């Protein structure tokens, strides 16, 4: 490895240079904790990249004004842009680490072929939401998204797996969600109900069907439960500037 700085600091600087505001680190051993027993072995880091020691999770927020009127063409375009930036940033970070002599791979943002595939019981190849929680970037909310102190649930995530032992890990956050229930009340298909730690109980079929319907109209995804969440410094930031 070039230089003498701790690896995690080098990674943070690389992310800053790519305008990626959130980065977290989790040892792969966290997937073995009892509270995550429900994650199938084949969807864990070791199955994807044998010898992986650390998950590096990158987060890019979706602008609150863009999602405030979701579902909409504006949010649809921003959503696609953020997803593309996540994949590009993760690819660049993995390439950078490989050049530094640290074997690494990036896990693509979406690991499924279509919404219809999910509706038929298909599974995604890897949960970036779980990786983000394990990397200390946020906690699960009632709507089954990751709620962060900085942006509430208005963040998209992607993961880089590396065999580097960073000797650095971030503690998991607890209860960033305040359980206000706005996401439950505002869901147009009543897909959110109750709590089943660490998730909310989600009617996945109802949620996926709405997304599919909106996609046919060119305004997917829905985004309402994310838009109404009052958690996040972005709420204060944009509210304080609404009259400028």
Cα-based radius of gyration, to the nearest Å:
18 Å
Shape: globular
The percent of residues in helical segments reads 25-40%
Low-confidence blocks of residues: none
Number of separate helices: 10
How much of the sequence lies in strands comes to 15-25%
Q: How far from one another are the termini?
A: 48 Å
Characterise the protein shown here.
Helix content is 36%, strand content 16%. The protein has helices at residues 7-17, 45-48, 64-67, 73-99, 115-119, 128-134, 182-186, 204-216, 224-227, 233-239; strands at 22-27, 54-61, 104-107, 139-140, 146-147, 155-162, 192-196, 199-202. Strands 1-2-6-3 form a 4-stranded antiparallel β-sheet, with helices on both faces. β4 and β5 form a beta hairpin.
Question: Helices and strands in order, then pairings?
Answer:
Blueprint: H1 7-17, E1 22-27, H2 45-48, E2 54-61, H3 64-67, H4 73-99, E3 104-107, H5 115-119, H6 128-134, E4 139-140, E5 146-147, E6 155-162, H7 182-186, E7 192-196, E8 199-202, H8 204-216, H9 224-227, H10 233-239
Antiparallel strand pairs: 1-2, 2-6, 3-6, 4-5, 7-8
Question: TL;DR?
Answer:
This protein has 244 residues and is α+β, with helices and mostly antiparallel strands. Helix content is 36%, strand content 16%. It has one domain (7-239).
List keywords for this structure.
single chain, 244 residues, two-stranded antiparallel ribbon, four-stranded antiparallel sheet, alpha+beta
